[in-house]
Specification:
271 residues, single chain, 1% helix, Porin, mainly beta, 13-stranded antiparallel β-sheet
Length: 271
């Protein structure tokens, strides 16, 4: 249907690959990881938005679209990262190979991706909040370079709030992304949504959510692509879930007709 954000974050090539293989060293409040890592497992990630299928609720599209080979599912890359946590704060930094689609192939000449993030968590008004602010810089490899340049950078922020009311567990999130460099086709992003759990006494494992993802675009007839998504995740048996998902995409890629999309996901959780 021509959308730029992608309605399904599980879409990938038919392939088999080693996805994670890294060394982790804990040193008190600090943690070091080095090896084959997916950067989006740690950076620019929203827990409340984890069940949404649109790609924008993973890496914000200011990274996912502007950096086509970023280290994110289904691709991981060689990298090293460290984190330090204390008193509700967490600081993280990492350097990753620039081409996660073709890892382990002469990594010293395949660009790089640098990420920095600071997180703050705490309690307020009976709920729990998390605020994340991050910055990234990418040096593209030649095959992904634009005529306007090969280096780009950006900022992102994620705010989450979880609370309980009348036995129901609510969660809300807000995502912001900025990459105004002229080399980027997608300079701005805004995402938001709500998730609800334990709203049906007979089915405590079910959840539902509604979200919106809007990506501003350059050089298109319409200024932005907007996706509205709604899902229901039903627990069939222990660890097994069936999730119908409906999305309405307004101006896909800023130029195509609006599209209504239905998806059905069956997934198993092992933890």
């Amino acid at each position: 249907m021509g959308d730029i954000q992608g309605v399904n974050n599980l879409t990938g090539l038919n392939r088999g690959a080693l996805y994670k293989l890294y060394y982790r060293q804990n040193m008190g409040n600090a943690t070091l990881r080095a090896g084959l890592i997916s950067a989006n497992d740690y950076f620019d990630a929203s827990g409340v938005a984890s069940r949404f299928l649109n790609v924008s609720f993973g890496f914000t599209p200011t990274i996912g679209v502007n950096v086509p080979a970023a280290s994110s599912y289904p691709f991981s890359s060689l990298g090293v990262m460290g984190s330090y946590s204390a008193h509700g704060w967490t600081a993280m930094s990492g350097v990753f190979e620039g081409d996660a689609i073709h890892p382990l192939r002469n990594p010293y000449h395949r660009g790089d991706m640098i990420l920095l993030e600071a997180d703050r968590s705490g309690s307020v008004d009976g709920g729990h909040y998390t605020v994340k602010v991050g910055a990234w810089q990418n040096s593209q490899i030649p095959q992904y370079q634009s005529a306007l340049g090969n280096d780009t950078s950006g900022l992102y922020s994620i705010e989450e709030y979880r609370w309980k009311q009348d036995g129901m567990a609510w969660g809300g999130f807000l995502e912001l992304g900025a990459a105004p460099n002229p080399v980027n086709t997608l300079p701005w992003y805004l995402g938001a949504g709500l998730r609800l759990r334990h709203f049906w006494l007979a089915r405590p494992g079910d959840s539902l959510g509604i979200g919106m993802a809007r990506a501003w675009l350059r050089g298109t007839p319409h200024r932005a692509e907007t996706d509205v998504e709604c899902y229901y995740s039903a627990k069939i048996i222990s660890h097994l879930y069936l999730q119908p998902d409906v999305q309405y995409v307004i101006h896909p890629s800023g130029s195509y007709p609006n599209a209504l999309v239905g998806l059905l996901r069956l997934h198993m959780r092992f933890s």
